[in-house]
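INFO batch 0412 | record 1 of 1 | parsing
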Amino acid sequence: MKLSDYVISFLVKQNVNHIFEVCGGAITHLLDSLYERKDIKVISMHHEQAAAFAAEGYSRTTGNIAVAMATSGPGATNLITGIGSCFFDSIPCLFITGQVNTYEFKFKKSIRQLGFQETDIVSIVKPIVKAAVLIQNPNEIRYYLEKLIYLAKSGRPGPVLLDIPMNVQRADINPKTLKSFNKSCPKPANNRIKKSVIKKVIDLMQASSRPLVLVGGGVRLAKAQQELYEFINKTGIPLVSTLLGKDSLANDNSSFVGMIGSYGVRYANLSVANADFILALGTRLDTRQTGTRPDTFARGAKIIHVDVDSRKANSKVNVDILINSDIKHFMKELNKKIGSYDKNKIETWHKNIEKLKIKYPIIRSFSGISIDPNFLMHTLSKYIPERGVICVDVGQIQMWAAQSLEIKKSQRFLTQGGMGAMGSALSFAIGACFAQKDAMAIVITGDGGFQLNIQELQTIYNYQLSIKVIMLNNSCYGMVRQFQEQYFNSRFQSTVIGYNAPNFQKVVSAFGVKSDKLVYQKEIAQKLRDLFKDSKPKFLEVKIRRDAKVFPKLSVNRPIEDQNPLLTRKQLQSAMIVDLLKESPNEF
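INFO prediction complete | emitting tokens
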């Protein structure tokens, strides 16, 4: 059997139904093995970075491993940003790269390159993968495929890379004699949690009067949404989320408060600051969540941090109890042991949070002519279909969406956290459409990010995918522009000065995608109705002010409850239950 045929058949057995790729000479054997197969579909993209992002979006949607493939040299290196994103956000993906023939590879020779487009991609990506392997012996193909799939999906998930030289791809192998990794793979680690630990968590929770659950992206990765819902339904404890945890619980649940962090909604940040108990599930507690003064984060609370990767904990925030466990397993154990919970004792806490929501709303009545981004996101929530997959780019639009979109139970919210690469959302949507049959994907992007992978409009047109692109156009790189206004005396180098964009209506129409434009606040409802009246791919350009800002926003050296626009000390004091901190110098 030809080795490249074996690779494709192996992937099919792993329930991989799609491969995202850009063709190239060093993967022609693999491409030929895909020719006219009915059990797996090739999705041809127009840039390898976009193929990597599409695989990432596919995996985020299904929870299963996804595959992207590229040729040697520039094809392989163009995958790197997507590989890094999967690594930082714990997304299981297999990246397959073609490589020059082994007799053309330099190995330890003290030369830069021997074969055409030869690039040592394995060495390059090792810091951002769980494992990377160059196959030299064709008879090891089964072993390394099994091992890489296992590593990608086990423990804290992540990307892996398999580099296959051309002469290895075309080698003839006997599948029956191939060595298996699965037969010798390590057994899953004992995931038992001591009863005394669970009891201590429950005792602390029962003793608290201002408890809070903080959910991160690890809840989805562990497929623990149902266990989380059961816990919230049983206890009624208020819940806040990180950016990546936003779709862990339906946002219309009475316990859902909102997103916390540097750009979190003010009432959610105040809730964290005032809590006396926090159960943190699957979150890194990084600076975007805690602010630059992590010692002040939830300073009045006992913090229980649960994460599958013990190395992520205590890097900044000192927690009271660290539990190294799969979130799903932990929540099952907690739900079994918790027994009855008196919801009445936290009724006052709920009322305090509701008062903060009323006093500091993220959505305000807006009667202006120009479009308010938070109001737009709030209104958009009413039109997105029940099974819609919302794919959000990076920049100001990411924060407006996370602050103001209301995610329903059956919807998904896909965006990047650790890597934060602009231009990812369009490709995420392509991956999501193939991952979730008959689902509609909604892309929320900005004019800057949209231009980074605009070529994938051709992929959307080619496959006639049900994707709605909503692009907020402020004619600049808005997030960095906001930094420059705050910290650099409005010297808008490269955000406004030097930045430019095309006529998007003409460009998008040239790709064969129907295009429209939204300019005035009063048009929002009608334009959104038109956008969603059918399942065809469409593009809506939304014109917003160049000086539009994301607020609230946390400045450097302030605790998360003290966001811009700053409240007076009297106003902040009235919202605080724990002691107010002294102000520190605002440095950047």
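INFO post-check: The chain has three domains: 3-177, 195-359, 373-543.
INFO record closed
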